[in-house]
Amino acid sequence: MQRTYDYYLSAHGHQGYDGTNGYLPAYVRIGAIHGGAWFSSVQGYLEFADESAITALDIVAHEFTHAVYRSVNPGAVYEGESASVYESVADIFAVAVTFANGQGNWTMGEDAYPPAIRNLRNPKASSSSTTRDSGTSCTRVALIPTGT
Fold it and tell me: What is the C-alpha separation between 58 and 37, in angstroms, rounded?
């Protein structure tokens, strides 16, 4: 989490997840029956359901970004298109953190869940990304890099 914290401070002058260097606990559930990671906005912590997620910089940065987003948008509603934007913002900043740390490659989660959870350069390349609203699933906003 330190590299993500450092990115937000150096690139955006944002100290900690809430801009005031607030405490943000993170938990790892060893032996969890399901994988993944999430930010609990109600209880104010990050949770990683397995050891591989906590070691993946992009996943940690993605979840940390959820905490940042909620701190600057406390009334944000996580449903439908707003949830899609919320997830996309977390993906974009996670990729920015990886590039700032010399590990950028436009994919999400490849270190924890190969080959990758999402591909921001080519969203249709991964099964968990959608590029349009299907009525029940989130729409992913694709970030199209230029010159890379």
Answer: 11
